[in-house]
Task: structure prediction
Amino acid sequence: MALREILKFGDEALRKKCRVVTAFDKKLWELLDDMAQTLHGEQGVGLAAPQVGILKRAVVIDLLDGKGVHELINPVILSQEGSQTGNEGCLSAPGEWCEVERPAKVTVKAFDRNGEEFTITGEGLMARALCHEIDHLDGILFIDRVKPDIAPR
Ligand code: NI
Result:
């Protein structure tokens, strides 16, 4: 396992639409292991592959709630309900926090590292993390979700 460099806002890789993962192989597993290590090293709750310069649809989330690392490959939001507004940050924008509105609850379909499909339902912080990380796979950053009236200059 190895720590990977986290790209910062302004890097054009963060604005790309990522490719669907088709090979659930050792290379993918190494990427996921490295992403988890990098996430833990930065004490973040989520990291998407494009943040380490890999334009593949893969994310890791760890809320440090004892449930461990969630790996989601090719995640798709199946349903969402409600809304929540709260402070949100990103490892690609250290120290920047903005109020972002997200669904209160989302259900996501994804694949695990072996290519097995599963669904996960998250509320609260998990819903926020799922939406934030899935956005990354389409080149969308949390600052794009800030309402204009409360956006910092
Ligand atoms: Ni982020």
About this structure: Residues 88 and 128 are 8 Å apart (CA to CA). The helical segments are 26-42, 125-136. The first strand starts at residue 46 and ends at 48. Residues 90-92, 132, 136 surround nickel (II) ion (CB under 6 Å).
